[in-house]
Design goal:
84 residues, mainly alpha, elongated
Amino acid sequence: MKAKKISLAAIVFACVWVGALLLAKAVVPVVLDGRAIGLSVPEIIASGAFFVVACTPVYRSIWLDKQLGIAASDDEEQTEAAVE
């Protein structure tokens, strides 16, 4: 259960991160007389995607299950259930 909360928190953090940087990129040149933030839009989005990919193993494994049919064997599931 803890992994799901961590994954959700990483997704929310990445959304806030990308949104805040894009908003700053749009507002800062207007407020500071034409000066821009050094990051480009693709760099901002890539940094947000990094947070999601690096910190969401739960959702990544669910996606692999559904899209590619990769699933843990019964022995692995029983071992994981015993650990929890």
